[in-house]
């Protein structure tokens, strides 16, 4: 059986697919990390609000109240930044998934072409074998 003429291209497509899969994994990890950070920041903000309410009930100075409000505002700003980053990372996830799908499609096309070539070579070998068998049978009966 002859070697697949596009084997090097197929190997290259497989490498592209592996690279695309790796990049998608990296972006998914970044998304997961951002979600964890976001959850942590939200929990801290919730705790700040809870502490602030407790202090209001027990008595708090204006200066302490201002400090808590500043800290809450800072946490909200951090949350906004993290949410923006999360949107960007999710957009990147979409791009990377599409790249992986495209790389997989390209690989699959070459795999099918390779299979088709192998089947065609197999058919040609059977045809030649049958032709030889017919020739031998014709010689045998021709005597």
Keywords:
143 residues; 0% strand; 2 helices
Helix-strand blueprint:
Elements: H1 7-58, H2 62-142
Structure description:
The protein is 93% helix and 0% strand. It has 143 residues and is mainly α. Helix 1 packs antiparallel against helix 2 (62-142).
Calculate the mean pLDDT score and round it. Answer: 92
- Note the overall shape: rod-shaped
Taking pLDDT < 50 over at least 5 consecutive residues as the criterion, the unreliable ranges are: none
Largest sheet: none
Query: How do the helices and strands follow one another from N- to C-terminus?
Result: HH
State the end-to-end distance.
35 Å
- Total strands: the figure is 0
Report the C-alpha radius of gyration, rounded: 33 Å
Give helix % range: over 70%
Overall structural class, as computed from helix and strand content, comes to mainly alpha
Q: Which percent band covers the strand fraction?
A: under 5%
Count of DSSP H/I helices: 2
Short structural summary:
The chain has 143 residues and is mainly alpha-helical. 93% of the residues lie in helices and 0% in strands.
């Amino acid at each position: 059986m002859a070697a697949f003429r596009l084997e090097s291209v197929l190997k290259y497509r497989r490498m592209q697919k592996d690279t695309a899969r790796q990049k998608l994994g990296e972006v998914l990890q970044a998304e997961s990390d951002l979600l964890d950070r976001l959850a942590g920041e939200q929990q801290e903000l919730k705790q700040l609000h809870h502490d602030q309410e407790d202090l209001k009930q027990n008595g708090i100075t204006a200066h302490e109240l201002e400090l808590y409000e500043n800290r809450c505002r800072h946490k909200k700003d951090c949350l906004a930044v993290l949410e923006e980053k999360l949107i960007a990372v999710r957009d990147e996830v979409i791009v990377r998934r599409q790249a992986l799908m495209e790389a997989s499609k390209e690989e699959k096309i070459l795999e099918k072409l390779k299979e088709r070539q192998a089947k065609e070579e197999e058919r040609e070998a059977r045809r030649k074998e049958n032709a030889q068998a017919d020739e031998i049978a014709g010689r045998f009966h021709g005597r």
